[in-house]
Amino acid sequence: METKELKILEKSIKYKFKDDSLLTLAMTHRSHSGKNNERLEFLGDSILNFVVADLLFKKFNDLDEGDLSRLRSQLVKEEPCLLYTSPSPRD
């Protein structure tokens, strides 16, 4: 992405990144460059899994680890996550 596009992105999400190189890396797909966002994606996926697991563990005392794992995997799949990250039709 061009610097101008990244500035537009920052403005639209109302957040200024402290390290522009991390933003550039996060927006770089592996088909574009050998240095890409896959390691950041791995880290982000791991954090999301941890946070959801922690919430489920605290909320559902009666579920065993298999049920908790299945529930977590359903919640962190791409489709449910898109429901919370995509703009609503009203936006």
Can you describe what's shown?
- The structure is a single chain.
- With 91 residues, the chain is mostly helical.
- The chain has a single domain, classed as Ribonuclease III domain (Ribonuclease iii, N-terminal Endonuclease Domain, Chain A), CATH 1.10.1520.10.
- It is 65% helix and 0% strand.
- It contains 5 helices and no strands.
- The longest helix is centred in the middle third of the chain and has 22 residues.
- The protein is elongated and about 50 Å long.
- The protein starts with a helix and ends in a 6-residue tail after the last helix.
- 1% of the residues are buried.
- The model has no long low-confidence stretch (mean pLDDT 86).
- The first-level CATH class is given as Mainly Alpha
Would you report the number of β strands?
0
Give me the CATH architecture, please.
Orthogonal Bundle
Distance separating the two termini? 24 Å
Topology:
Blueprint: H1 3-13, H2 20-26, H3 38-59, H4 65-75, H5 78-85
Helix pairs in contact: 3-4
Salient structural properties:
91 residues, Ribonuclease iii, N-terminal Endonuclease Domain, Chain A, 5 helices, elongated, single chain, mainly alpha
